Amino acid sequence: MAEQLTLGAESIIFRLDQWDREFILKHRPPKPYLLKAIDDLLKLSRTNRECKMLTVARSLGVPTPAVLWIDRKQHTIAMDFINGTQLKQLVSEASERKLRELCEEFGRLIGLLHDGGVVHGDPTTSNVIVDKQSKVWLIDFGLAEMNATVEMKGVDIHLMRRAFETTHWDLEDTMLESALVGYRRTMREEAEEVLSRANEIRTRGRYH
Amino acid sequence: MPLICLGLEGTAHSFGAGIVSGDGTVLSNVWDMYSPPTGGIHPREASRHHSDVGPTVIRNALERAGISPQEINLIAFSRGPGLGPCLRTTATIARTLALRLSVPLVGVNHCIAHIEIGCLESAFEDPVTVYVSGGNTQIIAYAGKRYRTFGETLDIAVGNMLDSFGRAVGMRFPAGPEIELKAEKASSYHQLPYSVKGMDLSYSGMLTAARKLHSEGTPLSEICFSVQETAFGMLAEIAERAIAHTKKRELLLTGGVARNDRLTDILKGVANRHDARFHRVSPPLAGDQGAMIAWTGVVQHRAGDSLKISDSHVLPKWRTDEQDIVWREVDG
């Protein structure tokens, strides 16, 4: 039986119990309010991209759910169910030490992706899962891209910072600081160039 | 004596004066938009326009409201963000009036005023706001005593993109309405760069591609159609991400580009999918005008906010999330 877990911005997530195992079905339903040509293109490209990038990320050492099968007609991916909690929900209850540890690991994983030329595309705390053993997983790779430039990595860091700022405003500094410790550790000397680009990106787009 | 606030808006191309009473009745709302015969907006010329038309616009606002200057007991002005010269001209008029009438002065954040006037009109308490205009493209929601920008453009605003494209194909400023009319006549879609990054988006690649289609001789109506569908589809996606992320149940569309019917339809669909209520700010209150400044001045004043003349310098880069929202009770 499939049970609906969440209605996301572009997908519906079901949990499926079958063969004594739990799976996740990520289905991208049609959006009737979009032009069909655009909707079709997005559903297909995001599904394909997510499938591929979950595996690419794994090969870079980033824990991601394994893809089991894909239904291209229904724009549905079946993947492992990670039994854990979104970092977003853990933030308020975790001790400062634990929070620092988790954010540092989040930053380290983003660093692993960037070091391998990949950007996540939507690095918010909703897309970080912490399992029972405190292992940190990244999910939601529908906006991920390969062959990432410094600009693309800078945007990724900007988005991570934005997520801390809008959703965890009272702990923003702690979380960002810890994430950047982890990020610098994997990105080493390349980190500074990306971080200064992220600062520059932050000031663009705004009225000036 | 009932509270009557005169709000002055002058952050970019328009100078506006609006008069709003303490109970939220818009008594008058007059504005004059600077539209250069050719090309775009030059900040200095726009500010000259504001000082030229300012006195007449204010006089008209008083006449239409049927009140005398002495009945005004609060002056609010757009303190930022915006074009420096325009802001300074508007602030000078506001300070002069506050001194002359001996009434308090309140400095209002232009972006927040767009949200507050929308909340007044819709009776929404805690919306996700899609604020789209010539200078701004932001997805804003209230959280922890601030209006926070959940997403925005990484390069140019959606209205700026429409105007720049319009200018390249010989339309007058603002080009949005003409693009909308042309788009209604077409249904052939030409693929354009669709660029969403998290809750941010980017329009510069799309603009370049649209201009290229034009130079290749693609029918203008088809380009306009494709531009609208792509640009608004991207906005729908980031709005939807913000709703899914914040779990809020109200979606507010405001800013000059809110006048676009196609964008309105698309966002209605987004709200529907998430069981959220939807409101598009009515055309007279959607663009840059003084009533939104006056109303936000009223709520700020009631919360005890006021600005000394000596501290009333303008803030051209004032970010939405830099203003403490002292007047809201909901905790988002």
For the structure shown, list the relevant keywords.
heterodimer; A: 208 residues; alpha+beta; Phosphorylase Kinase, domain 1; Transferase(Phosphotransferase), domain 1; 2 domains; three-stranded antiparallel beta sheet; 46% helix; 19% strand; B: 332 residues; alpha/beta; Nucleotidyltransferase, domain 5; five-stranded mixed beta sheet
What's the short version?
The complex is a heterodimer of chains A (208) and B (332). With 208 residues, chain A is α+β, with helices and mostly antiparallel strands.
Please give a structural write-up.
The complex is a heterodimer of chains A (208) and B (332). Helix content of chain A is 46%, strand content 19%. Chain A has 208 residues and is an alpha+beta fold. Chain A folds into 2 domains: 2-80, 2-Layer Sandwich (Phosphorylase Kinase, domain 1), CATH 3.30.200; 84-203, Transferase(Phosphotransferase) domain 1 (Transferase(Phosphotransferase), domain 1). Chain A has a 5-stranded antiparallel β-sheet, with helices on one face. In chain A, a hairpin with a 4-residue loop joins β7 (128-131) and β8. Chain A starts with a strand and ends in a 5-residue tail after the last helix. In chain B, α5 crosses α7 (220-246). The longest helix of chain B has 27 residues, at 220-246. Chain B is an alpha/beta fold and 332 residues long. Chain B has helices at residues 43-65, 84-101, 110-122, 158-168, 176-183, 204-215, 220-246, 261-273, 283-286, 290-302, and strands at 4-9, 14-21, 26-33, 74-80, 105-109, 128-132, 137-143, 146-152, 196-197, 200-201, 250-254, 277-280. Chain B folds into 2 domains: 4-114 and 286-322, Nucleotidyltransferase, domain 5, CATH 3.30.420.40; 124-285, ATPase, nucleotide binding domain (Nucleotidyltransferase, domain 5, 2-Layer Sandwich). In chain B, strands 3-2-1-4-5 form a 5-stranded mixed β-sheet, with helices on both faces. Chain A binds chain B through residues 7-10, 31-35, 37-38, 41-42, 121-124, 126, 143, 155, 158-159, 162-163, 165-167, 169-170, 201, 204-208, and chain B through 11, 80-82, 135-137, 141, 143-144, 146, 148-157, 189, 191, 194, 196-200, 229-230, 233, 236-237, 240-241, 243-245, 265-266, 268-270, 272-274, 316-317, 319, 321.
